[in-house]
Amino acid sequence: METVLQVLLGILEFQAARVSSQELEQSPQSLIIQEGKNLTINCTSSKTLYGLHWYKQKYGEGLIFLMMLQKGGEEKSHEKITAKLDEKKQQSFLHITASQPSHAGIYLCGGDAQ
Fold first, then answer.
1. Who contacts 30 (Cβ-Cβ below 8 Å, separation ≥6)?
2. CA distance 97 to 82
3. Which comes out higher in pLDDT, residue 49 or 94?
4. DSSP strand pairing (105-112 vs 4-11)
5. Burial of 57 (0-12, 13-18, 19+ CB in 10 A)
6. Greater pLDDT, 21 or 12
7. CB 78 within 8 A of CB 29
8. Which residues are within 8 A (CB) of 29 and not within 5 positions of it... i.e. 6 or more apart?
9. Which of 34, 83, 84, 105 is deepest in the core (most CB within 10 A)?
10. Radius of gyration of the chain from its Cα atoms, rounded to whole angstroms
């Protein structure tokens, strides 16, 4: 039997000293997928990104740090999750390959601007 996974997306914004806050937009805002399917979450910034953090939050629990990207073109992978930072386009994506029930939750991106 196929399992349906629900992935909710949120935005986590960081504001460092002497840095004005930036607007981050994630898409899609929510997503329901079948187990085994791939999914991609995009995070776009209104300013140039000098670092981007991806987090996951399971229902009723705290944030879980997934990965941090600091250089344009940088790509990191952990298990079935891959993230990439594109400074020029001011965006990042998080891609999950062959989703599993353990991937259900809320995914958040946070960025650093200079």
1. 6, 7, 8, 9
2. 8
3. 94
4. parallel
5. middle
6. 21
7. no
8. 9
9. 83
10. 14
| 3-state secondary structure (DSSP) of residue 46 | coil
Cβ atoms of residues 4 and 32 within 8 Å: yes
Q: Give this prediction's pTM.
A: 0.76
> Are 17 and 42 contacting, i.e. CB atoms less than 8 angstroms apart?
no
Give the pLDDT band of residue 7 (cuts 50, 70, 90).
low
One-letter identity of residue 42: N
| Burial profile 6-45: b = 16 or more Cβ within 10 angstroms, e = fewer | ebebeebeeeeeeeeebebebeeeebebeeeeebebbbbb
